[in-house]
Amino acid sequence: MTAQRARTGVPGSRRAQRVSGFGRSVRWTLGAFVVPVVVFAVVGYAYVHAKGGELAQIAVVPRQLVAIAVVCAVLLVVWLGVLVSTYLSTRPARPTTGQRIGGNLLTMALAVAITAPLATTGYYATVQAGTIRTIAGDPQSATVPTISGSGDNPWGGKRRVNLLLLGGDGGVGRTGIRTDSVILASMDTHTGRTVLFSLPRNLRDVPFPDGTELHDLYPDGFDLGTDPGESMLNAIYRNVPATNPDAIRGSDNEGADALKLGVSGALGISVDYYLLVNLQGFQQIVDAMGGITVNVNEKVPINGNTSAGIPPTGYIQPGPHKRLDGFKALWFTRGRYGSTDYKRMERQRCAINAIVDEADPAKLLLRYTKLASVGKKILRTDIPQDVLPAFVDTALKMKDQQLTSVVFQRSSDFDPNDPDYDVVHETVQRALRTAEKATTSGRRAPAKAATPHQRALVGARVAVRAATDALPSRSEARDLLAQRRQAREDARQAASDDAQDSLQATTAKDDCAYHPETGDESDDDGSDGADVSAAATLPARTD
Question: How many Cα atoms within 13 Å fall on the side-chain side of residue 353?
Answer without folding.
Answer: 23
